[in-house]
Structure formats: C-alpha cells, structure tokens
Amino acid sequence: MSSSAGQKWLIGCGVGCLLVALVFIAIVTGGVMFVRDTVSGFEAAVETRAELEQKFGTTDEFTPWPGGEIPADRIETFLAVRQGTALERQDIAAKFAAIPMSETETRELESKPSGEKALSIFKIIGSAMGLGGEMGDFFMARNASLLDQEMGMGEYSYLYVVIYYGWLGHDRDEGPQTGRDRDDRVNVQFGQPRTDSRARDDLLSMLRNQLRQDESVASDEWIALLTAEIEAMERDSHRYPWRDGLPPSIAESLEPHRERLEASYDPISNMFELVITQKEGWSVTAE
After folding, report:
1. pLDDT tens for residues 251-265?
2. Which of 14, 63, 242, 270 has the fewest Cβ atoms within 10 angstroms?
C-alpha cells in the first residue's frame, strides 16, 4: 500500500470530509515519515517480520500441501492467529467508524452549524490520525500471533486468500469504504496498490513451488488443475489463486470449519491483512 505505487483515494464529499481524507491518505498509504515515538508498533512489526522470515522463510517461499488438501491442524492454527489480532482489528474498526464514509454521514456533517461542524471535524481528524498507531499495533499483533502459533507469513497469506477469496467469495478490495450501506457509501476509488501486486506475485510463486513438489507425488488430475491455475495467473496479472472456485480437495478440507472461518473474516481490516512492513531510513513503509 504505497502512495509512490499510485494508490489514489478519491472521496466524494464536502470540504470538511476532504480534509479528513487528506489526513487519512497520509496515514494509511505507506512510504511516509513517522515521528519515531509514535510508531512503536510499526518498528516492532519490522522486527517481528525479520524473525518470521528467519524462522519460516520469505512469504514467496511457502509451499502448500501436496494434492491441495489443507491439514485440519493448520486451519486451527490459522484461526488462532486470527483470534490473536481480534482486539487490534476492533480498534481499527472503531477509528473508521468515527470517519464519515457515506453520503448521509457527510451531508449530516456539512449541515451542522459552523462551530459544531468545526468541533466534529476536529474529532474526526483525531480519529484519522490515530489510525497510524492502531495499524502499527495491528501489524505487530499479527506478526506476534504468527510467531506464537508457529505459522509463517507465507502460509498465513495462502490460507487467507484461499479461504476468504477463493472459497467464501469475499472481494479482495473490500475495506472500510464497503463496511457501510452499499447504496449510501461515499464513492471511493482505488488505484492498484503495491500490497496487492506483491502479495499476488508471492501467491503465484507458492503455486509454482507446489507444482514442483507435487509433480512426482500427486494425481494427474490435480497436476492438471494446478498447472491450469498457474497459467491463468500468468495471463492475468490481477488474478488471485482459485478465483473461479476451489478444487474439491481444498474445499472438502475447509468445509468442516466453515462456520468459524466465516465468523473470523473482518471486512474492515481485510485490505491491511497481507501488508508487510519494512524500514527505509527514518521511515516505515508498508507493501
């Protein structure tokens, strides 16, 4: 998620909301300079990312299981990692809840008397500025939970995409702007974020790893399915794995856990879940 990668947030609202939007952009788009004493979460996330990579390898080095079937204990571990970030995700949702994201909310803000509107805008900006710290805490908590549960960021990313996008059918672009009434939300448009491109390339590498592993041990039917999916991703630079539906071996391994997996999805935090942080000089970037 990087402003240098061309992500654009165009929020159709009044002048007051536009001010909030500008503050929001500065906080969540990555590549900005943060005051050192306000980003302990980001710095801890950078450190724990290094620990994760030392222990489990880089994200793109993960190799899914032969034949596609996901072991039940790894699904349980994934759910435990999700539980480990529940409080931080709630905090992020609370910050977004204070920011007008629908036409009705923005009209209500604009209709207030000038003094009351100014006070409201001041509070909204406070919530927006608090997002930076909340997101840093979320990245730190996610990495710490991964370390506690013995799961790498690669495995987490694979399971997240396969479960929520490929199986349950959630939109990978779902985020704060879709957490309100879909017919009444403010118009928000996104450019292609760096996170999306990096994560998608990592996932393609994972499937290639899987094909190399499975060629001598899996059925011809599975190899054909996996090869076709890799080729589809190579043709479409925006495609995530199994967009058209999961192979039976994967779907069947997930089905017994459906209720809890559905409950573990969070539309507000979705767009931040696969972000990784790194330090560049005095700044912390997210990609």
Report:
1. 999 999 999 999 999
2. 14
3-class DSSP state for residue 188? coil
197: exposed, middle or buried (Cβ count in 10 Å: 0-12, 13-18, 19+): middle
Q: What count of other Cβ atoms lies within 10 Å of the Cβ of residue 162?
A: 23
Instruction: Give the Cα separation of 82 and 260 in Å (integer).
Output: 11
Phi, psi of 278 (to 5 degrees): -150, 155
Residue 284: which H helix or E strand, with range? strand 283-286
| 196 neighbors 19 (Cβ within 8 angstroms) | no
pLDDT digits 0-9 by tens, 99-152 = 665 556 566 656 666 665 565 555 556 555 556 677 888 999 999 999 999 999
User: Cα(278)–Cα(281) distance, rounded to whole angstroms?
Assistant: 10
Cα(152)–Cα(143) distance, rounded to whole angstroms?
Answer: 9
Instruction: Count the helix, strand and coil residues of the chain and give each as a percent rounded to the nearest 5.
Output: 65, 5, 30
CB-based contacts of 56, cutoff 8 Å, min separation 6: 62, 151, 152, 153, 154, 155
Q: Output the CA angle 105-263-146, nearest 5 degrees.
A: 105
List 185's β-bridge partners, or say none. 102
Residue 1 to residue 27: CA distance in whole angstroms: 11
What's the whole-model pTM score? Answer: 0.76
Q: What is the per-residue DSSP string for 97-119?
A: HTS--BHHHHHHHHTS-HHHHHH
Phi, psi (rounded to 5 degrees) for 280:
-130, 100
